[in-house]
Design goal:
Blueprint (H helix, E strand, L loop, with lengths): L4 E5 L3 E4 L4 E3 L16 E9 L4 E8 H5 L7 E7 L12 H14 L2 E5 L11 H14 L10 H6 E11 L1 H15 L9 E5 L17 H15 L28 E7 L5 H13 L5 E7 L6 H4 L4 H15 L1
Parallel strand pairs: 6-7, 6-8, 8-9, 9-10, 10-11
Antiparallel strand pairs: 1-2, 2-3, 4-5, 5-7
């Protein structure tokens, strides 16, 4: 007999009375491959035995076949989205996208698995990604880390952090953490903040989402699933990045690419974030790229569309330029 449903938060998750949690989307997995037919090879490496978490590495085949000592590659650390609840680096949508970025930008990519809500609510995801960043930087001297691909191929003078939706949110916060903890030597060249999941109790401006049902729906997912321990609900500084108390001056990178989709509920928050960065005393450069007639993570949903390929080229230029 099937257990009684206690709650469901569509389209993400259903929670049953016996404690079972069923994710409704984002469950498919694609295997790694050392077959160079698509010009990129991939493999999974455990970075956190404690939590059984891995990173999925992507390496252009030409670099994999090259002799040691040849030119090092930019390093991209990618953080997947999914409302802190669904998806993983092993999902087809993220495997294929990060592979495409690695190929087009000729970079080594590290796609991070992290613990997800509701079993592991915020801040578990932030803690895990920070652990993965530290693990990645343990290879910075070219021989100290456990993974040969990173030791041999990563240029730690060109490290980029990027993510979409929840991953865009996490990218910002961990770039802030890198700036605060300079003694750790985690130097990030730039961050790509793509359709970031930034929110707050009140609209950020008159053009932000005003519909009460939409706003309460987003708040419900955050407060009841992703981060039920937040004292201030959607005004938690992890979610309300543009709040009055936020200070971006310590952001630990040189440049930021902010990607905005005009039909995305988070669009005005992303634009406010870029504007606040530009007005801050941070000192880096901000670039905004906006597709006014597209929705949230359209580039993942329609990766072969002209606008998705246009954005891919922008992200590639950000990394390789």
């Amino acid at each position: 007999m099937e257990s009684e449903i206690v709650s469901e938060f569509l389209p993400f998750v259903r929670i049953y009375k016996d404690g079972t949690i069923k994710r409704l989307i984002g469950n498919d997995i694609i295997p790694t491959s050392l077959d160079p037919s698509n010009d990129v090879v991939s493999k999974d490496v455990v970075y956190s035995p404690e939590h059984n978490l891995s990173v999925r590495l992507f390496l252009p085949h030409k670099a994999a076949a090259a002799a040691d000592g040849e030119k090092k590659l930019p390093l991209l650390i990618y953080i997947h989205g999914g409302a802190w609840i669904i998806e993983s680096p092993f999902s087809p949508i993220y495997h294929n996208y990060v592979a495409a970025v690695a190929k087009s930008a000729n970079c080594l990519a590290v796609s991070v698995q992290y613990r997800r809500a509701p079993e592991h609510p915020v801040p578990a995801a932030y803690e895990d990604v920070w652990s993965a960043i530290q693990w990645t930087f343990s290879h910075a001297n070219g021989s100290g880390g456990p993974e040969d691909w990173i030791n041999k191929h990563a240029d730690f003078g060109r490290v980029f952090l990027a993510g979409d939706s929840a991953g865009g949110n996490i990218s910002h916060h961990l770039a802030m953490k890198a700036g605060e903890e300079k003694k750790l030597g985690i130097k990030i060249k730039g961050i790509g903040v793509v359709h970031p999941a930034f929110w707050g109790t009140d609209p950020v401006d008159e053009f932000d989402v005003q519909d009460k049902e939409t706003r309460s729906g987003i708040a419900e997912v955050w407060e009841k699933v992703a981060s039920p321990n937040s004292v201030n609900g959607t005004d938690d500084p992890l979610f309300n990045v543009n709040g009055s108390g936020s200070d971006f001056t310590g952001l630990g990178c040189e440049k930021v690419l902010v990607a905005v989709a005009g039909k995305d509920v988070f669009a005005r928050q992303a634009l406010a974030y870029a504007a606040k960065l530009e007005k801050s005393q941070w000192g880096g450069t901000v670039e905004v790229v906006e597709e006014k007639d597209e929705g949230h993570v359209f580039h993942l949903q329609k990766p072969d569309s002209d606008k998705a390929l246009k954005f891919l080229n922008k992200l590639v230029d950000f990394i390789s330029g």
